[in-house]
Amino acid sequence: MNAELIEGLRNQAEGYTAPTAAVELLIDHDVWLRRPDFVNRYVHQVPASELFEPDRPLAHIDWDKVAKALNRQAFPASSSEIAMLRIAASLAEDHPVKLRDALVGMDATTTTAVLTAIAAVTGHRDRITLTLTARNRPDWL
Predict the structure, then answer these.
(1) Alpha carbon distance 28, 109 (integer Å)
(2) Strands, E, within 30-93: which ranges?
(3) Do residues 111 and 11 lie in contact, with contact meaning Cβ atoms separated by under 8 Å?
(4) pLDDT tens for residues 87-111?
(5) Mean per-residue pLDDT, 55-67
(6) How many Cα atoms within 13 Å fall on the side-chain side of residue 127?
(7) How far is the C-alpha of 47 from the C-alpha of 100, rounded, in Å?
(8) Are 63 and 89 in contact (CB under 8 A)?
(9) How many Å apart are CA 40 and CA 95, to the nearest integer?
(10) pLDDT greater than 90 at residue 49
(11) 97 with 79: CB under 8 angstroms?
């Protein structure tokens, strides 16, 4: 993953809990920011010549454009990858997401990333650990 891009996205979202959570969710998921088709079309890096602080890169995701593409089903991706992108767009800029549809079938790692992002929006900085044991596992699982 492009370290300068990641730093730029983090810098742009800094100070805003929901956009930061969305960016961190995409970073943790480790899929979308590796896809050139996504980055080239939906992620915009501010050129160094336009930066107020040249040593502090800035980048942003055009979440409106992402949401429109999601609604058109324009992304070739797995349902889990689409769900992560929908959840990130919802966190970043309040684009609607049907959580029931998005969460069904997620593995523990992906679920943990989503829970961590949701916790971050509320101001919690702790990492979430998901553990299902025989003692706390619902009967229906």
Answers:
(1) 10
(2) 43-45, 59-61
(3) no
(4) 999 999 989 999 888 888 888 888 8
(5) 95
(6) 6
(7) 39
(8) yes
(9) 21
(10) no
(11) no
